[in-house]
Every structure is written in structure tokens, then in C-alpha cells.
TrEMBL record:
Keyword Transit peptide attributed: no
Keyword Amino-acid biosynthesis recorded: no
Domain spans labelled CBS: 20-76, 84-139
UniProt protein name: CBS domain-containing protein
Protein keywords: CBS domain
Gene3D superfamilies: CBS-domain
One Pfam family cited in the UniProt record for this chain: CBS
InterPro entries in UniProt: CBS_dom (IPR000644), CBS_dom_sf (IPR046342), Diverse_CBS-Domain (IPR051257)
Length: 154
């Protein structure tokens, strides 16, 4: 399930495509969580979009691996599909940065895939917002909401 939040308000701020990282590494659902973890280490990232047939179908995070595999005592050869999150919140490349910050806060996520027609075109992180002086308030507010206790992962 993809959730695009576009409120129709014309804004003078940047769109997310001006801040997002475009060099995005992806994994397939068939790859092992160990392969995903190695990529996370190599790329110094905490999440990787999961792509099948060119379309995003999930996201695997360091937290997913920790809670759904390591804590469960399963082996590192477990496929990504068994640990990935599939209830996705994504951004559109035309979204306003303020909308992205609200989306992150609302869904308590630090990183969002930026998706156009089901294909990953970038990633935006809370740090990307914090690095831009004009968005530091939004980043701080989003981080406060992200840090609130939420339901445990299933």
C-alpha cells in the first residue's frame, strides 16, 4: 500500500527531488538478509528499498533485520521477503519538503523511498532535512514525533 499525501497547496519551498539521494541501492526479495546487511554497511545506510520486476514491493531496515531475524534467532540466510516491511509510506518526487516532514512524523519513519510510477527514484532521510537550515524546525518536529513510542513491530 502506497500513501501519497498531496494536499494541493502551492508552496514556494523546495520539492523533495531537490534534496533526495538519487544513488539508491536496492535488493530483491530473494536476496538474503545478510546480503542486505552487507550493502547497508557498505553504503552506510539503515534501509534499502526492495524491488521486484522494477517495482518497489517493500523496504528492509536495520531494525527489521534485528527484530525479525536476529532477535528471533533465525539464520542470516533468511530471504529479505521474510523480514521486509511491506506497508510502505513513500514520497512522490514532486512533494513539498514540508509535506515530506509531516509524512515522516505521522508515520514515524526516518527514511522514505521517493517513488514515481512504482519505481524508486530516490531516498530522503530526516538528516537531509536537518542539513538544510530552512528545514531544521520541520526536521526537529518530525524527529520528535518519530521518537514517540509506537506499537511494537509484528
Amino acid at each position: 500500500m502506497f500513501q501519497y499525501i498531496m494536499n494541493g497547496v502551492l508552496s514556494m519551498s523546495q520539492s523533495v527531488n531537490q534534496l533526495m539521494s538519487t544513488n539508491v541501492v536496492t535488493v530483491s526479495p530473494q536476496q538474503s538478509i545478510q546480503e542486505a546487511a552487507v550493502l547497508m554497511k557498505q553504503q552506510n545506510v539503515g534501509s534499502i528499498p526492495v524491488v521486484e520486476n522494477g517495482q518497489i514491493c517493500g523496504i528492509i531496515t536495520d531494525r527489521d533485520i534485528t527484530l525479525r531475524s536476529t532477535a528471533a534467532g533465525t539464520a542470516s540466510s533468511v530471504p529479505v521477503r521474510d523480514c521486509m516491511s511491506t506497508n510502505l509510506t513513500v514520497a512522490s518526487p514532486t512533494m513539498d519538503v514540508h509535506e515530506v516532514a509531516q509524512l515522516m512524523a505521522q508515520h514515524q519513519v526516518r527514511r522514505l523511498p521517493v517513488v514515481d510510477n512504482g519505481q524508486v527514484v530516490g531516498m530522503v532521510a530526516i538528516g537531509d532535512l536537518a542539513n538544510e537550515a530552512i528545514y531544521q524546525n520541520e526536521a526537529g518536529e518530525a524527529l520528535s514525533n518519530i521518537s514517540l513510542p509506537s506499537n511494537e513491530m509484528k
